[in-house]
């Protein structure tokens, strides 16, 4: 296929060799394919405030190296979190001129700006300022400056966001279930897994579904890890409840059985579960019950992973995988008989549609000329120290994956990692 580009937009598609035309012709090698730029709507950049964990420069270089041309930044773990118009302005100022790919922003819904007694301009003000929707937690977030919503506060926030025409994106774990679960201690991954049981996701997802049904607000379940909630989700979707669901590469490619004692680089919340659970997530993704796959890139400094003790109870929970999401998912998808077109739908087209990123995620006339040159049969050896995110910690370290990103193009120009030309996006 030949793709014609003018002024950063796709203007024509023609049958023929796999090329992108931007005033010149770039001919792909026989073992390469042209994909739309991936869209990752779940990235914790952490800047400002925790820039030693990650930052806009390092995160977007990592994204570009992994074929991701658009990210949407989560409202935590930066300080301040993106819960006010002033905080959004601070974050945009930190990002301006430093991003290698396009960057949008989620707002945060917390008790101070989203509950029944919140200021009238809280969520509306952020909406008018251009956030793509609002993230909330139904259980403690892990950082003190981003509080979780009670059921009453969540219902109020969802109604407000729905009236604004927006989307609520939800970390769905029930705090009551978590509080009653055994405490994770020591190096045994099974202890940590028991501390975040399936029932915590199941119960919280019930609340999200009921709230979406009652308010009519679009609600999106973040990082689904538990297959036990899939029947609930299937019934809700069949009834027309406005619900979408994502999962992450680590839930699709890793299993609890393979996590070694003290392997805190694998710790995330909700947790990686067993192989049968992974198979059920793949079946739901294949059937369209799960809508998309995004990274939940949530890095930290190495010391916060407590690798010297391997204590799952005290280590930071988050997986750094932004750069390797495409080969990780493609490796497993290919093994299960899925074509690359499925991976593109899960990792580009549907995330863009759910977030409202118009003109992104498709090789279509009228869309942004964002491309990935991908070698689907090449072997990629993951070396944490060779990745572009800030700290050399990842659960994928040492893995042999299939598929390698060769080039990434943004608006018809090849991305040069040390020459950031990404745009800051508003909805």
Structure description:
The protein is of the alpha/beta class and 427 residues long. 31% of the residues lie in helices and 19% in strands. It is built from 13 helices and 17 strands. The protein has a six-stranded parallel β-sheet. It has a four-stranded mixed β-sheet with strand order 2-1-3-4, with no helix packed on it. Strands 5-15-16-17 form a four-stranded antiparallel β-sheet, with helices on one face. A hairpin with a 2-residue loop joins strand 16 (400-410) and strand 17. Helix 5 crosses helix 8 (198-215) and helix 12 (325-335) crosses helix 13. The radius of gyration is 20 Å and the shape is globular. It starts with a strand and ends in a 13-residue tail after the last strand.
List keywords for this structure.
about 425 residues, about 20% strand, six-stranded parallel sheet, alpha/beta, 13 helices, four-stranded mixed sheet
Radius of gyration: 20 Å
Tell me the strand order in the biggest sheet. Answer: 9-10-11-12-13-14
Secondary structure class reads alpha/beta
How far apart are the first and last residues' alpha carbons, in Å?
Answer: 31 Å
């Amino acid at each position: 296929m030949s793709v014609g580009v003018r002024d950063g937009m796709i203007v024509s598609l023609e049958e023929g060799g796999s090329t992108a035309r931007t005033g010149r012709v770039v001919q792909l090698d026989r073992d390469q394919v042209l994909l739309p730029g991936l869209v990752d709507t779940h990235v914790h950049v952490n800047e400002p405030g925790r820039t030693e964990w990650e930052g806009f420069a390092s995160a977007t270089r990592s994204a570009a190296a992994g074929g991701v041309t658009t990210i949407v930044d989560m409202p935590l773990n930066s300080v301040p979190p993106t819960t006010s118009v002033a905080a959004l302005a601070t974050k945009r100022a930190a990002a301006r001129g430093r991003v290698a790919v396009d960057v949008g922003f989620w707002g945060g819904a917390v008790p101070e700006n989203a509950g029944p007694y919140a200021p009238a301009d809280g969520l509306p003000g952020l909406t008018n300022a251009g956030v793509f929707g609002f993230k909330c937690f139904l259980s403690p977030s892990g950082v003190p400056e981003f509080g979780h919503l009670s059921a009453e506060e969540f219902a109020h926030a969802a109604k407000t966001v729905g009236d604004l025409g927006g989307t609520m994106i939800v970390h769905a774990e029930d705090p009551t279930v978590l509080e009653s679960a055994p405490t994770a201690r020591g190096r045994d991954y099974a202890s940590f897994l028991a501390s975040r049981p399936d029932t915590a996701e199941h119960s919280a997802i019930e609340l999200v579904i009921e709230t979406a049904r009652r308010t009519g607000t679009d609600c999106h379940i973040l990082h689904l890890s538990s297959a036990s909630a899939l029947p609930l989700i299937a019934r809700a979707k069949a009834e027309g409840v406005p619900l979408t669901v994502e999962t992450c590469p680590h839930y699709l490619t890793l299993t609890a059985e393979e996590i070694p004692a003290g392997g805190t680089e694998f710790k995330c919340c909700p947790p990686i579960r067993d192989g049968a659970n992974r198979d059920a997530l793949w079946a739901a993704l294949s059937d369209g019950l799960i809508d998309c796959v995004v990274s939940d890139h949530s890095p930290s400094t190495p010391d916060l992973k407590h690798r010297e003790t391997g204590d799952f109870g005290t280590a930071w929970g988050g997986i750094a995988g932004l750069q390797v999401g495409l080969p990780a998912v493609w490796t497993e998808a290919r093994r299960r008989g899925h074509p690359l077109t499925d991976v593109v739908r899960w990792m580009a087209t549907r995330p863009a549609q759910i977030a409202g990123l118009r003109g992104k995620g498709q090789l279509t006339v009228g869309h942004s000329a964002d491309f990935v040159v991908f070698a689907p049969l090449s072997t990629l050896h993951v070396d944490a120290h060779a990745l572009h995110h800030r700290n050399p910690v990842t659960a994928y370290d040492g893995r042999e994956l299939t598929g390698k990103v060769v080039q990434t193009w943004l608006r018809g120009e090849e991305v040069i990692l040390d020459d950031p030309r990404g745009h800051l996006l508003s909805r």
